Amino acid sequence: MPADVASTQAASPAQYGGRMRALALGAYAGIFYCFLYVPIILLAILSFNDSQTIGLPFRNFTLRWYSDVVNSPEILKSIVNSVLLGIVSASIATVLAVLLALGFRQEFRFKGLLMKIILLPILIPGIVGGVAELMFFGYGNIPFGVWTTALPVHVTWVLPFAFFTLFPRLHGLDRSLEEAAADLGARPFMVFRRIVFPLIKSGVVATAMFAFTLSFDEFIHTLFVIGSQRTVPVHLWTLLSDQMVPFLPAVGVVVMAVSMLVSLVGFAISARADSGSAQQSKTR
Amino acid sequence: MRATPVRRSWVDLRALLVLPAAVWLLIFAVAPLVMLATMSFWTSSIFGTTPDFTLDNYWVIAQNPIYLQVLLQTLRIAATVTLISLLISYPMAYFLTTLPEGKKAIFLVLLFLPFWTSFVVRSFVWLPMLGRNGLINLILIKLGVTSQPLEWLIYNEGATHLGLVYVYTLFMILPVYLSLERLDPKLIEAATDLGAGPVRTFLRVTLPLSMPGVLSGCVMVFLLGCGAYVTPQLLGGTSGMMFGNVIAPQYTVTNNWALGAALSVLLIFVIFVCLVLFGRRVRLNDIFLKV
Questions:
Q1: If pLDDT is split at 50, 70 and 90, which confidence band does A181 have?
Q2: Are A42 and B131 a contacting pair at CB < 8 A?
């Protein structure tokens, strides 16, 4: 069969080409990951470098920059501020986002307009949002600080992201369960507590953690509304603009470690939730 | 018959659940922007900013060529950063789709991890890379390429580009990856069976079908690039300055709030025009609900 012979002959160079392409693609990915990680690893290495200037060569291993970080009351205060602010703003934003997502399952007037308003905090360039909030609170004579101005700003910043992570989960829920419960006489709050919430619980937790990291890392809006108080990124920024203090890499590593850790846990929770619901729908 | 009206009112009430968030956003997101737009017509002096209706702020911007120049530079940098991100992200997104499920999850997490940290830190990591005592200079000296550390690696437009690509490229990879994931592998098989080579299959099937993701990514990166402040401030020096670095000093240095407001309005307006011109085919809702 000549056709068969031709096809086997054609297959091997094609397979060879395919393998070469896969190899090239893998090598490219390797370079890409290096691009992502080399600067971060370098920063981590430099945080242990016993040198007054930030940079190479690596002289001696030291932990003193970390002890400087731990012993600096300003840094500790800013970490406390950031963590508390993150927890409170993530909680408020998540509650608002759950309500919003529940309401968004209904059709109502101005839904399209509301969608655009939800997108606003994401679409407006950070610096413009920051100065707008600065003038807004400034003219409202609200004293600048972590709880007076930074909190509402953080909630506003986090809310759209929380909504967009939650909404697909809520939207995909099988409505018949709720309808059944309602037909059996459960009041709306009871339906939410006993049916909806258990189904979206891990999604809500994951969203809250995602919201926490967004708040913890928020910089540009906070810079303009925080007044004389400090969150970690704002403090890092003032350290960067004042002078290159030698413990900067250590501060950077601490900040990175906190947000990466919280994000990883949040990611793991949401991944487990997703695989759980996938299994549920398979067995159903 | 009696159950229906009860059910209906219950359903209508549930739409009211959007109210807390809607009111919140009206107060803290919409009102400040309305205030910003209003204030761009006010007058700032050393005594503060007073209500007025004047176009003076816009006139100042029009008369001083530096503003227009930085605005154009900002659009240009945002556009090249978008292009570079697209070129380096597409193969990466493609690579991710070729992985088996288990590995895919690991590589995705590895990809996300650096982006889960503050972008102040993510911009700052390039200082010890590009600086005088940086890694690049050390390598170049060790290799004998140069005997003195190179000073031009940082504090210029190139460093701004590099930093912005580094900081925002995930926003390109993600939508491209998602659109490639949705692509039906049967289409590619069909193209191959019909005799199309890999290049032709890519150009005629894969690429056109991933266009929605490409467009979403481009819009996101361009938007973020236009509003950049931190990265150019840390890495760009004077030549790598962007529009954000012109707005901020109106608040931190000269206290000219009215001029700052006018500059901000101009930036939003220009970004909006760019989006209408180039991104008409992208529906923003799609970007966010699918990603």
A1: confident
A2: no
**Number of domains, chain A:** 1
Q: What CATH number does residue A277 fall under?
A: 1.10.3720.10
Number of C-beta neighbours around residue B33 at 10 A: 20
Nearest Cβ partner of B251 from A103, A104, A224? A224
CA atoms within 13 A on the CB side of A222: 33
Distance (Å, whole) CA B244 – CA B264: 9
Task: Give the separation between CA B102 and CA A261, rounded to whole angstroms.
Answer: 21
Question: Which residue range forms the structural domain that includes residue A183?
Answer: 72-283
Would you list the DSSP string of B1-12?
Answer: --HHHHHHHHHH
Percent of chain A with pLDDT over 90: 38
The answer to whether residue A41 is domain-embedded is no
Question: CA-to-CA distance for A264 and A257, rounded, in angstroms?
Answer: 10
CA pair distance A7, A17, nearest whole angstrom: 15
Closest approach of A208 to chain B, Cα-based (Å): 14
User: What pLDDT band is residue B4 in, cutting at 50, 70 and 90?
Assistant: very low
User: Is A80 within a domain?
Assistant: yes
* Pair type for strands B48-50 and B43-45: antiparallel
What lies within 8 Å, CB to CB, of A42 at 6+ separation is: B125, B128, B129, B135
Predicted complex: ipTM over 0.90: no
The answer to whether residue A199 sits within a structural domain is yes
A53, part of any domain? no
> B195-208 pLDDT, tens per residue?
888 888 888 888 88
Is pTM, for the whole model, over 0.95?
no
pLDDT in tens, A60-71: 888 888 998 888
Chosen for mutation from A131, A159, A223, A263 (greatest number of chain B CBs closer than 10 Å) is A131
Q: Which pLDDT belongs to residue B194?
A: 87
